[in-house]
Specification:
19 strands, 6-stranded antiparallel beta barrel
């Protein structure tokens, strides 16, 4: 049986009565007061997620940008200091090794990559394999704590704790500085909820992570700040149509099939670029779409998607009853001729065809 690791905040979650479960090798909170309640807290005010299980790599040196350009699909050359971008690591066979964030700490010299928890070792090995020019690489995942403070009041809370201009931080930008009296804290205007807010990267020394956790909840009391588990994180991202690695994208799904053409830039050379460019020119056979249920039923991962005649045209990758919307929604891959918004499709739920409709993101 493989070891399950704790984050710096695991004892906090347990003390707060969180429902805990293993996730990506870590003991993580799934929910505290309930997914719907926590989801509403983030949409309406603010919530704190422990996402310390995520992976962080530092790439440093004169060839750091060159390495990032070769292994990622987006164009990191456009990044200036203090800017970040969403990208992916294409594999050699048309799929995706992982999706990630690229942070430009010092242009052409120092970058931070933030990767999915379940893929830390796989991503590290993949990037290392392509590091032919001696780029200095550091895996700082184990010593980095990460809190996502999300919701319309999130930046107001964090601003009370720092001189960094959090309130006016543009989307996908970041600052490094002091939070409370703790140095070397990185605050970025990013998140996975669509509700606004920031993510706070903390070097886990001298009990700094716990100091920031406690201060956040003290500062957030006026806004009824709540701790949020991974259950609500999933419903929040799904309402926005954000992909989850392992569900909606993986080693077999093309970024173009997944609707990630906007982060696939053919202005540079990168892993499998020629094949992906050919795929773009020919057109993909299937596409990741969002759909909402017309008839009653909740779509689940791996449920088959069919046409009105019962022919299989795809499968569900994510699905839930959306707490903010009061209806069941899902993501799934369908044959290209069924991918247009307004197309009627059917979800096979326990051998019954349940009607749904393809819609545009975000869900409304």
């Amino acid at each position: 049986m493989s070891e399950v690791f704790n984050t710096p905040f695991t004892h906090k979650h347990i003390a707060l009565g969180a429902k805990m479960a293993p996730f990506a090798g870590y003991n993580m909170p799934i929910s505290y007061t309930g997914i719907n309640d926590e989801h509403a807290a983030v949409r309406n005010s603010a919530g704190v997620f422990d996402v310390s299980h995520m992976g962080e790599f530092i790439l440093r040196g004169e060839h750091a940008l060159d390495l990032i350009q070769r292994v990622t699909s987006n164009d990191a050359a456009v990044l200036e200091d203090g800017k970040a971008q969403y990208s992916c690591l294409p594999n050699a066979s048309g799929g995706i090794v992982d999706d990630l964030l690229v942070y430009c700490v010092e242009k052409n010299k120092v970058y931070m990559l933030v990767v999915n928890a379940s893929n830390i070792e796989k991503d590290w090995n993949w990037i290392t394999q392509h590091n032919t020019k001696g780029v200095e690489m550091h895996n700082i995942s184990a010593k980095t704590a990460l809190l996502a403070v999300q919701g319309p009041n999130a930046t107001k809370i964090v601003q009370t704790m720092t001189q960094m201009d959090v309130l006016n931080m543009p989307y996908y930008s970041f600052s490094k500085g002091t939070l409370l009296d703790i140095d070397n804290v990185l605050i970025s205007a990013t998140g996975y909820t669509g509700a606004g807010g920031v993510e706070i990267y903390i070097e886990d020394i001298n009990d700094n992570a716990n100091k920031i956790w406690d201060a956040l909840f003290a500062a957030g009391a006026a806004y009824d700040l709540k701790p949020i588990g991974l259950g609500a994180r999933d419903t929040l991202r799904l309402e926005m149509g954000f992909c989850l690695y392992g569900n909606d994208i993986d080693d077999t799904t093309s970024p173009l099939e997944a609707g990630l053409g906007w982060i696939t830039k053919f202005t540079k050379d990168f892993t499998n670029a020629a094949a992906l460019k050919a795929q773009k020119e020919i057109g993909v056979a299937k596409k990741l779409v969002g759909f909402e249920m017309v008839d009653r039923g909740i779509p689940r991962h791996y449920y088959l998607i069919k046409d009105a005649a019962g022919n299989e045209i795809g499968s569900v990758t994510s699905g839930t009853q959306a707490p903010s919307l009061g209806k069941a929604i899902g993501l799934g891959y369908v044959a290209n001729d069924h991918a247009k918004a307004g197309t009627e499709i059917f979800i096979d739920i326990r051998n019954t065809l349940v009607k749904a409709m393809v819609v545009k993101f975000p869900f409304k």
